[in-house]
Amino acid sequence: MTKAYTLNAADGQQYSSPTPGRLGGHRRARIYGRLDCPSALRAIAAGQYVTHRVFFADEPTAVAAGYRPCAVCMTEAYRRWKSHR
């Protein structure tokens, strides 16, 4: 049996994928970052975040969906994003 993963597309719609997402995000905060982000992992361990968790195949898709980079785990991308605001 093949496992299916639910990812978010650039238009914000979810779709099924045979490969897991490379980035995770928070739907309400509209933030994306690495799956091993210390900030996200702390929130998940505290019982938060999980119900609003989304996944993206790659960074361009997350950006196109209107998400911004995480300041903790994607520092350089966050600085670039911040400087263009």
Automatic annotation (TrEMBL):
It comes from the Bacteria. The keyword DNA repair does not apply. This is Metal-binding protein. It comes from Mycolicibacterium crocinum. Keywords: Activator. The keyword Isomerase does not apply. SUPFAM superfamilies: Ada DNA repair protein, N-terminal domain (N-Ada 10). InterPro entries: Ada-like_dom_sf (IPR035451), Ada_DNA_repair_Zn-bd (IPR004026). Residues 1-23 are annotated as: Disordered. The lineage of its organism: Bacteria, Bacillati, Actinomycetota, Actinomycetes, Mycobacteriales. Residues 25-74 form the Ada DNA repair metal-binding domain.
